[in-house]
Amino acid sequence: MSAQKELDQQDTSSPVPTDEQPVQILDKDGNVRPNATVPDLSDEELVSMYEDIKLARRFDQRAISFQRQGRIATYAPMTGQEGAQVATSYALNDQDWLFPTYREHAAKYVHGVRLASLLKPLRGIREGYAVPDGVNVMPEYIPIATQVPQAMGMAWGHKLQEKTDRAVLCHLGDGATSEGDFHEGLNFAGVFDVPAVFVCNNNQWAISVPRERQTASETIAQKAQAYGIESVRVDGLDPLAVYQVTNEALNKAKNPARDERRPTLIEAVLYRYGAHTTADDPSVYRDGDEADEWKEKDPVDRLQKYLYKEGILDERLEAELDDRIEAKISDAIAEAERAEADPNQIFEYVYDEMPDRLREQQEELNALREKYGDEPFNGVLE
Amino acid sequence: MSSTTAPDAESPIDQLNLVEAVCDGLYTEMSQNEDVVVLGEDVGKNGGVFRATDGLYEVFGDGRVIDTPLAEAGIVGSAIGLALSGLRPVAEMQFMGFIYPAFDQLVSHAARLRSRSHGQYTVPMVVRAPYGGGIHAPEHHSESKEAFFAHEPGLKVVCPSTPYDAKGLLIASLRDPDPVIFLEPKLIYRAFKEAVPTGSYEVPLSDASVRREGSDISVYTWGAMTRPTLIAADNLADEHGVDAEVVDLRTLSPLDTETIVESFKKTGRAAVVHEAPKTAGLGAEVSSTIQEEALLYQEAPIKRITGFDAPVPLHGVEDYYLPQAVRIQEGILETVGF
Question: What are the boundaries of the region Disordered (chain A) (predicted)?
Answer without folding.
Answer: 1-38, 361-382
